[in-house]
Amino acid sequence: MKPKKRLGQNFLNDSSLLSKIVDVGKITKNDSILEIGPGTGNLTNEIIKRSPRDIIVVEKDNDLSEILKKKFGNKITVINDDILNCYNKFSISRPMKVFGNLPYNISTKILTSFIKIEKLDKRFKQFIFLFQKEVADRIIADENTKNYGRLSILTSWKMNRKKILDINPNYFYPKPKIWSSLISLNPKIKFEKLKKVKNLEHVTNIFFNQKRKMIKKPMRQLFNNYDAISRDLNIDLNSRPQNVSINKYIEICKIYEELT
Predict the structure, then answer these.
(1) Contact by Cβ (8 Å): 217, 188
(2) How many angstroms separate the CA atoms of 211 and 217, rounded?
(3) Residue 205, Ramachandran bin (φ over 0: left; ψ between -120 and 50: alpha; else beta)
(4) Beta strands of 102-239 (E only): which ranges?
């Protein structure tokens, strides 16, 4: 099967690496599995070896969907659709573990779509995703580092983040020009509730649009009484956006929501 560039298809073929990826999920016979973009089914085959309770795969490519149905039969359920159209529609009886070698061009969109799901921890147990290394570094970044930004804050708000390993381009076909990284994400049971995720996206967008500037300007954009709010939150207005902790951004967002 020739990979389709327009769908961002890069297939993993190395059996030892595929086994390592599946190992991260620690699959048991009681687990329900969702795989995003299974392609030719190489990772799917490794998942099947661990004998989970059930496996759902979502594959957008019509040709690959037919190949998967013929290859695995009733061992899996194939949904021929775009994950962005159906990620919130699965009828499941237990939290799922999710695997995905995500297309680079929509990987962050897929991640943020899951983050926006209500009661995320009730529906999903773990996400084991392959990202472009640059994106992965932004996901796991902490304050006071160059990669820290909107994606770090949004992900950390609802998930515990861990990089597992970096992956050489030689493990893919076709070979991409950049490295990839394997990330494990676990939904948090307890986190600060916000009225709308888009409010946190809005707040962090204002701050990180000019991330080299001091935060006085974005605070002034958000609040008339920005100086009083900064004192209440113990935030130095001379700081840069990357110096403000994730918890402080959540506090800023909660105040913003109260005033809008």
Answers:
(1) no
(2) 11
(3) alpha
(4) 124-132, 159-167, 172-173, 180-187
pLDDT of residue 91: 67
User: In sequence order, what DSSP letters do the residues of 21-51 get, joined into one string?
Assistant: HHHHH---TT-EEEEE--TTSHHHHHHHHT-
Say how many domains are in the chain: 2
User: Kind of pairing, strands 77-79 and 54-58?
Assistant: parallel
Mean pLDDT on 114-132: 94
Query: At which residue do the structure tokens 């994400």 appear?
Result: 185
What band does 184 get if pLDDT is binned at 50, 70 and 90?
very high
Structure tokens at 39: 């392609």
**Tokens 């890069």 — which residue?**
10
pLDDT, tens only, 37-68 = 998 899 999 999 999 999 999 998 888 899 99
Query: Rounded distance, CA 64 to CA 70, Å?
Result: 10
Mean pLDDT, to the nearest integer, of 221-249?
96
179 lies in the same domain as 215: no
| Percent of the chain whose predicted confidence (pLDDT) is above 70 | 94
pLDDT range class, residue 28, cuts 50, 70, 90: very high
Note whether 106 and 179 are same-domain residues. Answer: yes
Based on the domain organization, do 151 and 213 belong to the same domain? no
C-alpha 216/C-alpha 239 separation (Å) is 8
- Asked whether residue 71 is assigned to any structural domain, the reply reads yes
Q: How far apart, in whole angstroms, are the C-alpha atoms of residue 135 and residue 131?
A: 6
For 253, the domain range is 197-259
Q: Which of 105, 110, 51 is nearest to 76 (CA)?
A: 51
